[in-house]
Amino acid sequence: xxxxxxxxxxxxxxxxxxxxxxxxxxxxxxxxxxxxxxxxxxxxxxxxxxxxxxxxxxxxxxxxxxxxxxxxxxxxxxxxxxxxxxxxxxxxxxxxxxxxxxxxxxxxxxxxxxxxxxxxxxxxxxxxxxxxxxxxxxxxxxxx
Length: 144
Description:
Blueprint: H1 2-18, E1 47-48, H2 82-85, H3 90-93, E2 128-129
Antiparallel strand pairs: 1-2
């Protein structure tokens, strides 16, 4: 039975592979740009730095990063964000201290060190740039 099912599946794929595409021409996501040609490079956007940070759109929104992060490294061996934002260094660096919520485990118990769930900062905190919106946005943070 196992071999019969495999043979039937193989025949279905063979028929599908040799049949013509119904409905017209298949278009590439690259548009009319041939594969051998280089794709058009996207515009390089500048990171927007803002002293004092950015206003949040809702109460529990993670703060946006108000500076460049190009040279920062976050991996299993190091997190350079902590060079400025750790509880030990933030005053000396005149930076914002990471939130107390970063020192809670999944059940809400306080931890001595930052939770591993909060270690990769840029999963939630993002730098900003001067990109034009892709779509119109009517979000109203006041709830109206």
